[in-house]
Amino acid sequence: MSEQVHPIKSELLQKAQGMLREQIRDVQLQLSQLQESSETEEKSSAGDKFETHQEMLNQTRDMLQKSLAKDKILLAQLNAVPIKTMERVEEGAILELSIGKIWVSVPIGKVNLNGIDYQLVSKDSPLINVLWNLKTGDPYDFRGKKEKILAVY
Q1: Most-buried pick from 93, 98, 100, 141 (CB within 10 A)?
Q2: What is the domain partition of the chain in residue ranges?
């Protein structure tokens, strides 16, 4: 197995890192704006209206903080994904299947790189569990559909 960095994986890593960092910045901005809104409302409201507004702000803040924590965890996990060339389906492998190209990394969805869509999925996804440790040309059966792995790299 080669220990050489795969150029497509390196580019995918950079693009996915950028996407996650942008999401993190966006959530942090929303939290900052929420804090400003809370402080403004404290000065101008009283009674039930104030309490209702504060509860809505607290619920929104909790949701944003959970989203921020999740994105930070995904970024840390992404940074740990190997980007070397691989021969078997494992974390860090890019797979070419009849349904498209998949990078076994983190579950953030579709990333377009140079006009090609790559689906980023976790090693724990049902499809990857079926394909784990298989090689290029190996057959597999997923949800009643029999296919072959077109390429692993």
Answers
A1: 93
A2: 7-79, 94-152
